[in-house]
Amino acid sequence: MDYTLHRVQAEDWPAYRAMRLQMIRDTPLAYLETIDDALGHPDSEWRFRTTRSASPGNIGVAAVGPDGAWVGVMNGFLPARDTAKLVGVWLHPDHRGPAGGVAALMLDEVVRWAREETAAERLVLLVHEENRRAIAFYRRSGFVPTGHEEPYPLNESQRELEMTLPLRVL
């Protein structure tokens, strides 16, 4: 299947909202908000999120199938001058797996953005300790655990694991 990438723009908020609701329903432990909270957001919140994705120091990438439907999304931002952070990663279950390469396609674009459009030296992420599929994908993609863990905000008895990908060759 042929996929294209689309840089998320402010006007994409309806598609982004629909994708975010799918994300939370599919993998509720991964997105730091409940479906009830997400459903309660006004349109202005969704507009804010897509406007932010398109602003300097941020990126939102949607994977688009041949029919024009969004099948996945990946976001990044620059929390510090030398660090880019990967957040909000999701791919529809029908498009997952190494054979399709859609997740890798989106990640390649976020890595390219972090390397070429920012001064980041590394790309970091937090992943829920029980999200084994995501952890395996990140490992295959070159991310390594840093050893840093944080309490999971929706259930502090659970942990989020930090992983990093170096962006600059020394």
UniProtKB/TrEMBL annotation:
<protein>
    <submittedName>
        <fullName>N-acetyltransferase</fullName>
        <ecNumber>2.3.1.-</ecNumber>
    </submittedName>
</protein>
<feature type="domain" description="N-acetyltransferase">
    <location>
        <begin position="3"/>
        <end position="168"/>
    </location>
</feature>
<keyword id="KW-0808">Transferase</keyword>
<dbReference type="InterPro" id="IPR000182">
    <property type="entry name" value="GNAT_dom"/>
</dbReference>
<dbReference type="InterPro" id="IPR016181">
    <property type="entry name" value="Acyl_CoA_acyltransferase"/>
</dbReference>
<dbReference type="Pfam" id="PF00583">
    <property type="entry name" value="Acetyltransf_1"/>
</dbReference>
<dbReference type="GO" id="GO:0016746">
    <property type="term" value="F:acyltransferase activity"/>
</dbReference>
<keyword id="KW-0012">Acyltransferase</keyword>
